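Session log. Operator J.P. requested a structure for one protein chain; no other inputs attached. Running the standard single-chain path with C-alpha cell output.
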Amino acid sequence: MLDIKLIREHPKFVLENLKKRKDPEKVELFKMLVGADKKWRELKAKANELRKKRNEISKEIAELKKKGKETEEKMKEAAEIPEKIKDVEKQAAKFEAKVHDALMSIPNILHDSVPVGKDESENVEIRCWRKPPKFDFKPKNHLDIALDLGLIDTERAAKVAGAGFVYLKGDLVLLDLAIQRFAIDFLTKQRGFTVIEPPFMIRRKPYEGVTDLSDFEMVTYKIEGEDYYLIATSEHPMGAMFMDEVFDKSQLPMKLCGVSPCFRKEVGSHGKYTKGLYRMHQFNKVEQFIFCLPDQSWKLHEELQQNCEALYQALELHYRVVNVCTGDIGTIAAKKYDTEVWMADDKFREIGSNSNCTDYQARRLNIKFRDKPGVPPMGFVHTLNNTALATSRTILAILEQFQQKDGSVIIPEPLRPYMNGIEKLEKS
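Structure written below.
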C-alpha cells in the first residue's frame, strides 16, 4: 500500500500518477479515500478534545469540592462526555475502515519510465533477441505437436479434472523437470540465489499483503471451510515469508529462487490465448524474488531481467522484452517488463514478467530494515519478483521453435544433461 503520509502531503502528485493508469474507478476511489481520511482525522481530533474537556471538568469538580461548592451541574456535564466520546469513536472507526480498505486497493506509484497507454497494445518493445526460426514446412502449434508425439493427454485430463488441465507423458515430463533443474542450478550456482520450496497454500492475511485484492476471487482457489488458498505463484508465499519482521541491512539483498506448482482460476479469460499449455489452472514455475534496500531495487530490477534473458538465450529461444504501459501494469508494480516468446503463428506472447514493487508489498506486510541489531527500523524494504522460467510456456516455446519436418522436436543442449542425454522428442 501507499504511505498515507504521502497521500496527505502530496495528494495532487498521487492523483496525477494514478490518472496515468487509465482507470476512472481507481481515481474515484482515491478521491473517496482523501475525503474519508480527512473526516477520520477530524473525528479523532474531536474525540481527543472531548477527553481533554473531561479532564478539565474533573479538575474543576475537584476544585469546587475543595471550596465546598455545588458540583452537581459539572458532574452531570462530565457524565455525558463518555457517551459522546464513544459515539465519535464509533463514527471514526467507520471512516478508518474505509481508509484502510481504499489504501489496500490504490495502486503503487509508477516509475517515470513507464510508458503511458491504455492496454497491452501500447506496451513498448525495448529489445528483441534472435530471429524467428525458418521452416521449410508449415509449422504446427505446440498442442498438435505434443498430441502427435503421444506426450500429452487433454481428453482424459478434461474427463477427470475439467478444462485447463493436461496429463504430461513420458519425455515431456522429463522436459518439465529438466527446465526446473536448469533454472534452479543457474540461479543458485551462478547468481547466488537460495532455492525455496514454499507452502503450496497460504492464509488470507499474508495473501492480502502480496497481491491485488481485486484479483483474489478471479485468480485464487480457496479451500472450502478453511482459511487457506492455493498459491498462484511462489512469489506470494516467499513475499509473505518475513511478514512483521525486520531485516538487518547486512542481510540485504536477500535473493530467493522459488520452485512450486502454481494454481490459477483465470484460464478462460475473455480474449486471451488459451490453447494447450499456454494458460492452465496448474503449472510449474521457477521464480526469482528479492528483498532489498530502497536504493538497490532499480539496479536489481535490471539484474533480474538479465537473469531470465540469460536462461532464454541459453535455450536459444526467440523472444522480445516490452516495457509494460500504465494501463496494463496492474496494481502492485511500480514498473514491469514482460518477456514475450515467439510462437509458430508469428505472434509474441508473455512467457514471464519482472516487477519492481518498491515498498508497496512490504508496507502491507510490515517488513522493515534497520542499520544493525537492537536499533529501531529505518524504513520498509523493497521487493521484486521475476519469472525465471514457467515450465509450461517454456515447453510450448521449445515445441514450436524447435519442431522438425518429421514431427520430432530438438531438445536445447543445456537441458539434455537433465534428460539422461535425450536429444530429441520423437514418437516411441
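Operator note: The two ends are 54 Å apart (CA to CA).
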